[in-house]
Amino acid sequence: MVVSGLLSFSALFLTAQNSTNSPYTRYGYGELANRSFGAGRSMGGVGIGLRSSKQVNPMNPASYSCMDSMTFLFDFGASTQLSWYNDGTNKQNNVNGNVEYMAMQFPLHRRIAMSAGLLPYSHVGYDFRNINTSGEQVYQETFTGTGGLNQLYAGLSMDIWKKRLSIGANINYMFGSISHQAITQYSSSNATNVRNQKEYKFSDVTFDIGLQYTHLLSKTEHFVLGLTYAPKKRLNNDTYEIIESSESVIDTITGRSFDTPTGYGIGLSYTKNNKWIIAADFSYQEWKKAMFEGKSDGFKNRSKVNAGLEYIPNLYSRPFLNRVRYRMGVSYSDSYIQVNGNGYKEYGATVGFGFPISDARSFINVSFEYMKISPNAKVMIDENYLKMTLSYTFNEYWFFKRKVD
Q: Using one digit for the tens of pLDDT, what is the confidence trace for 165-174?
């Protein structure tokens, strides 16, 4: 039943990619996806220093080994988003929805655990038009784009020292396609309309590694320091381009270089069992050294800071609201893309809840995220969006052998 559900969910994931209408997704790989799950997403998107036996956390593969030897975890999420765009003259609102992720995690040994899942890497989705003049000619330009990249990952984690030091690695199969189309239509019948279409198809394997160190303060309190590293990778790709007019059609396939960047991350969390989790992450990606269409001058390095907390009033209290996980967080990042040499800043705030179900091992997680896209130049487009993510974390004792009297 679970396997069939996974397959059905995978098919839904691959067809549900309409998650953005941002014109900035016209550049590079589009809008980079949030890699955090469940609790981490409600806490501002943290994950590098999080270590919980109740959540799947692919942001740091070293976290997998924290689960006990008889537990199976399955986590999936979906979202809906309301966006506002403003270029100073025109305003536009859009509603989008998407399947966010799916993943599972299970032990292989008392010190070794594995996780596997499917999650997005980037999203592309835009549709806008401009009316311009050239001399006496009036023409309309229409720009549309769709697609994105996905990651199918499998990771292993091992405790290598007294359940205090763990290492892990993810192998990611990255795949997907991105399509861009630009159409120029002239009002005069004497002018030639032009359609330019590009399509990028990617299929390659990447990997990332992680480490977590747990420092015990007492039987109920501890710190976790997390580190992650993802090396630069040149992706296998096919580039397909069509330039079409009433006079000619040119169909070209050219080999061009596309890279994912080197990435570094550090995170720290403080946990007081069944009461508090406070966490913060810093990550850095060297996009400036990454090639796109054979060029290395279209990107800039990206920094990101995330921080958040989780609070449980009283885990063992009878009233339901006392057992709910209350979460909040903030985030800040700059863009990796540049538009005529300018980028933008991203400011975010989140709140969320983890509602326990059944025997309090499984959860329904709800998060609300507000994001402000603040461009560096006045001529660029302002964006705001409100996103709600709903996820279900299934936690079951699959490997527990019950005794029958």
A: 999 999 999 9
**pTM: predicted TM-score of the whole model, two decimal places:** 0.90
- Which are the contacts of 318, defined by CB distance < 8 A and separation ≥ 6? none
Bridge partners of 10?
none
**Residue 27 CA to its chain's centroid (Å):** 17
CA–CA separation, 10 vs 8, rounded Å?
5
How far is Cα 27 from Cα 242, in angstroms, rounded to an integer? 18
Residue for token digits 């052998």? 401
Residue 303: both structure tokens together: 């920094």
Copy the structure tokens of residue 388.
Answer: 């709600």
* Residue 12 pLDDT grade (very low, low, confident, very high; cuts 50, 70, 90): very low
| Cα–Cα separations (whole angstroms), residue 354 to 16, 36, 322, 323 | 25, 15, 11, 9
CA distance 63 to 57: 7
The pLDDT value recorded for residue 252 is 67
DSSP state of 160: E
Q: At a CB cut-off of 8 Å and minimum separation 6, what does 44 contact?
A: 306, 307, 308, 328, 329, 330, 331, 348, 349, 350
Contact 334, 351 (CB under 8 A): no
- 45, two tokens: 């998107």
| d(C-alpha 328, C-alpha 313), whole Å | 15
d(C-alpha 43, C-alpha 34), whole Å: 12
Contact (Cβ atoms closer than 8 angstroms) between residue 339 and residue 23: no
Mean pLDDT of the chain: 88
